């Protein structure tokens, strides 16, 4: 027995030594290993996604425009972009000589087919193409007719509207094997679906100068601790970091942490028109709600200080953001009570809001307490997460607490959270002033002109207290010494071509 | 023996049908707003209607269930709503990974448990005490905590093994060992703790029996008495425990696969459940139930082979 145990120990030590010495086979040239937190539903371009899932599509497909980290747009498959005076006709001149990896040419007809497929597809960003009423081809151009002058159309053309080979549109094969004209080709023999995706360089990629890495590997790591370990051990070069407790240890170990504030957290005061019978019709009530929150304390309690207090839903990288607006509503319980009294609610009132398991217990309790201090009694209804959006959009509740994201394009915020038909404005509220400001943004022909309207709109929303934002939360992105990352305002992860380069 | 097998098979089929029906009903109950959850809050009403129509969610429960079961018996679990592969493809590719993990952990657990259990039973003394303490630790320390410790020490601080990822053994055996060692150990540890206790107790009891004294007085060597006769008698309860262990390993693999980002059935289960992907979840439930039933059947057959008294009972 002793001999057996001794031999076993020796074998274990030898095996460990051998295992430790085994190095993985390296691809030739520079390789980027990109860690992502979630896999994709389908590789069909019409199912295209952005943000955390963007790298999958950016690897193999092109878009019609590119958005640079600075926020400016540049040409891609469309080498010219023009808009008529009314802002409702967009002309895209399609670059000549570009081919898909199956040998088919990228033509205006192919682009038309893709845009139409996108509008009918199941992409979560399908609404980005909702303003396009028709797509036609004229010579080397694709003509888009818009329902209204949509300032976010440039972003839509650079983000989720990916272009795949038209022969593969609608096929089952396209869901698994993408055929695009992008910088890489999926290596299906090495790829382990939903786990590790290997990409080889596309030898016919028209923009090879922009491709900084010869090979790409995308690893799906959904667990926050595993993500940190993957970055620390070099299993990935870049990764979103959700585990805030690991940030300091990563910095100490020499990793770069880039951050941006994508989400704003707070209350959307839905029933501004009072059609649901709540007192939120009164601007004084809404302003009182804004004054009920000690924002710095809530930022510390709910997000461990990782973020910045705010009173506006505009992101700091948006035109129209005004830091001065963040001191519109100081924390003042007495003043808030006085405002409620002036509005006719000296004894406060009851307010129903949804809550769900995903919110945890601390945030709902903190909000309930803060509003309770000024006399508003919050009655929560526990809603299963699967039904939360459905009930909110009915709308069943006059207000809700949520963490809402912002896209790189500010008009997407206007479209989804402010305009009358925005998904996050379920009561369809708008007034003459907000309508006019939104029209001004739509009709502005220069960024400077649009910025003026954005600023006015933002100021109006804050003064009218459409929302009660509490803070913007930090989103952390970790990268190793091997790479240089430039985050794109409004995007959860850096864009593949222009956002990451070798160090 | 044929009647025994037939009875077990019939029970297994009935159990599988019951599990699938209950699971489908429970999932169906929550499916009315799944389109919102999958397409996101900014999906329009038209998007929701299109999703429900294309996925058959507008049909009544009986029709949906009948469609599902008539395809499932042919091994076709349909297309998932949130993954690229078909449910059958996704499950078979991932099941292979989980079975490699669980089987390796089981074999490792069995070998080490027998060695430790027999050594403790024969030698007693400090070895016996160490094995007993190991048993306590194995019960007390959850496998995910052990996994975190192993990763922190043997992958991050001292990069001997991989912290995340999976390399199939056919692709690169060295890298497979680097990626599988820590998860296998984390999975197997609790099993070693409990099975070694079982083996220790069973061997000790068996060695007290008259037939062992008879064998010894008949001139058989100590090794032959222990490993050919006593262990065989002690094996039946240990085998039952191992069978249960295998089922537990499948469940334990869910957390371990998340920690090590291993593309197995466990990780797929978590993703499918979080995404409310009804076809994927039903496929997983069915396959898991089938595996449990088959494993228990094999254990029963092995026990019956080793010990005829089991067949009669």
Task: Please provide a written account of the structure.
- The complex is a heterodimer of chains A (503) and B (313).
- With 503 residues, chain A is α+β, with helices and mostly antiparallel strands.
- Helices cover 31% and strands 22% of the residues of chain A.
- Chain A has helices at 2-21, 54-60, 108-120, 153-158, 173-176, 224-232, 247-252, 283-291, 295-303, 333-342, 362-373, 385-392, 410-418, 432-443, 447-463, 496-499, and strands at residues 31-36, 65-67, 73-75, 78-83, 89-94, 132-138, 141-146, 184-186, 196-201, 215-220, 238-241, 256-269, 307-309, 349-355, 376-382, 399-405, 467-479, 483-485, 500-502.
- In chain A, strands 11, 12, 13, 16 and 17 form a five-stranded antiparallel sheet that branches.
- In chain A, a hairpin with a 5-residue loop joins β4 and β5 (89-94).
- In chain A, α8 packs antiparallel against α10.
- Chain B has two domains: 2-72, no CATH class; 88-312, Orthogonal Bundle (MetI-like fold).
- Chain B is globular, with a radius of gyration of 24 Å.
- Chain B is mainly alpha-helical and 313 residues long.
- Helices cover 80% and strands 0% of the residues of chain B.
- The chains are: A alpha+beta (503), B mainly alpha (313).
- At the A-B interface, α1, α6 and α12 of A face α2, α3, α5, α7 and α8 of B.
Number of strands of chain A: 19
Instruction: Report the uncertain regions of chain B.
Output: none
Major sheet of chain B: none
Distance between the termini of chain A: 56 Å
The residue-averaged pLDDT of chain A reads 91
CATH class of the largest domain in chain A: Alpha Beta
Q: If you consult CATH, what is the topology of the largest domain in chain B? A: MetI-like fold
Tertiary shape of chain B: globular
Output the number of helix runs of chain A.
Answer: 16
- In CATH, the homologous superfamily of the largest domain in chain B goes by the name MetI-like
């Amino acid at each position: 027995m002793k001999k057996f145990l001794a031999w076993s120990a020796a074998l274990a030590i030898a095996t460990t030594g051998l295992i430790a010495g085994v190095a993985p086979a390296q691809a030739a040239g520079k390789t980027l290993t990109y860690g992502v937190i979630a896999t994709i539903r389908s590789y069909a371009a019409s199912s295209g996604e952005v943000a955390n899932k963007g790298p999958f599509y950016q690897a193999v497909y092109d878009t019609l425009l590119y958005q640079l980290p600075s926020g400016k747009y540049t040409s891609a498959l469309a080498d010219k972009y023009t808009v008529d005076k009314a802002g409702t006709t967009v002309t895209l001149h399609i670059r000549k000589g570009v081919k898909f990896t199956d040998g088919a040419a990228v033509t205006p007809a192919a682009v038309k087919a893709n845009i139409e497929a996108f509008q009918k597809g199941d992409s979560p960003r399908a609404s980005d193409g909702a303003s396009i009423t028709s797509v036609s081809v004229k010579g080397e151009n694709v003509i888009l007719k818009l329902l209204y002058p949509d300032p976010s159309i440039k972003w839509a053309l650079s983000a989720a509207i990916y272009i795949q080979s038209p022969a593969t549109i609608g096929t089952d094969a396209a869901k698994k094997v993408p055929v695009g004209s992008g910088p890489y080709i999926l290596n299906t023999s090495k790829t382990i679906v939903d786990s590790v995706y290997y990409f080889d360089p596309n030898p016919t990629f028209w923009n090879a100068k922009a491709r900084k890495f010869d090979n790409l590997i995308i690893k799906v790591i959904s667990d926050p601790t595993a993500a940190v370990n993957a970055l620390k051990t070099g299993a990935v070069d870049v990764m979103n970091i959700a585990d805030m407790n690991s940030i300091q240890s990563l910095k100490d170990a020499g990793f770069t942490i880039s951050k941006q504030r994508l989400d704003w957290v707070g209350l959307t005061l839905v029933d501004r028109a009072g059609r649901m019978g709540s007192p939120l019709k009164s601007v004084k009530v809404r302003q009182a709600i804004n004054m009920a929150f000690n924002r710095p304390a809530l930022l510390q309690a709910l997000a461990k200080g990782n973020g910045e207090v705010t009173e506006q839903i505009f992101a700091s990288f948006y035109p129209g953001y005004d830091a001065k607006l963040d001191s519109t509503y100081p924390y003042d319980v007495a003043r808030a009570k006085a405002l409620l009294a002036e509005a006719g609610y000296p004894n406060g009132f009851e307010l129903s809001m949804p809550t769900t398991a995903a919110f945890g217990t601390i945030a709902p309790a903190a909000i309930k307490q803060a509003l309770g201090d000024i006399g508003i009694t919050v009655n929560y209804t526990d809603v299963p997460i699967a039904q939360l959006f459905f009930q909110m959009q009915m709308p069943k509740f006059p207000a809700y607490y949520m963490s809402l994201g912002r896209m790189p394009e500010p008009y997407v915020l206007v479209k989804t959270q402010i305009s009358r038909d925005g998904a996050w404005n379920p009561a369809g509220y708008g007034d003459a002033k907000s309508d006019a400001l939104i029209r001004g943004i739509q009709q502005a022909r220069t960024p400077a002109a649009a910025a003026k309207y954005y600023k006015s709109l933002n100021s109006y929303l804050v003064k009218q207290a459409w929302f009660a934002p509490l803070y913007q939360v930090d989103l952390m992105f970790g990268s190793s010494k091997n790479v240089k990352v430039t985050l794109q305002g409004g995007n959860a992860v850096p864009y593949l071509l222009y956002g990451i380069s070798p160090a | 023996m044929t009647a025994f097998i037939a009875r077990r098979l019939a029970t297994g089929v009935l159990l599988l049908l019951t599990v699938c029906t209950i699971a489908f009903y429970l999932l169906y109950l929550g499916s009315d707003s799944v389109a919102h959850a999958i397409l996101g809050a900014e999906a329009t009403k038209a998007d929701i209607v299109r999703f429900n129509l294309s996925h058959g969610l507008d049909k009544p429960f009986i029709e949906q269930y009948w469609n599902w079961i008539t395809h499932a018996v042919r091994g076709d679990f349909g297309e998932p709503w949130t993954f690229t592969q078909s449910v059958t493809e996704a499950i078979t590719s991932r099941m292979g990974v989980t079975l490699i993990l669980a089987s390796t952990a089981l074999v490792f657990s069995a070998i080490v448990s027998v060695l430790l259990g027999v050594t403790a039973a024969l030698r007693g003394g400090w070895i016996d005490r160490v094995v007993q303490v190991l048993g306590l630790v194995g019960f007390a320390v959850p496998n995910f905590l052990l996994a975190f410790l192993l990763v922190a020490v043997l992958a991050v601080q001292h990069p001997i093994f991989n912290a995340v990822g999976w390399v199939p053994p056919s692709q690169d055996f060295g890298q497979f060992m680097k990626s599988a060692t820590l998860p296998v150990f984390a999975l197997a540890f609790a099993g070693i703790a409990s099975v070694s206790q079982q083996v220790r107790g069973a061997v000790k009891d068996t060695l007290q029996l008259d037939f062992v004294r008879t064998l010894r007085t008949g001139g058989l060597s100590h090794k032959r008495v222990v490993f050919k006769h006593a262990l065989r008698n002690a094996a039946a309860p240990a085998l039952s425990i191992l069978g249960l262990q295998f089922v537990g390993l499948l469940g334990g693999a869910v957390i371990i696969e998340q920690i090590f980002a291993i593309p197995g059935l466990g990780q797929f289960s978590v993703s499918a459940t979080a995404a409310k992907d009804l076809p994927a979840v039903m496929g997983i439930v069915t396959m898991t139930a089938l595996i449990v039933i088959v494993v228990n059947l094999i254990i029963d057959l092995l026990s019956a082979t080793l010990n005829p008294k089991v067949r009669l009972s």
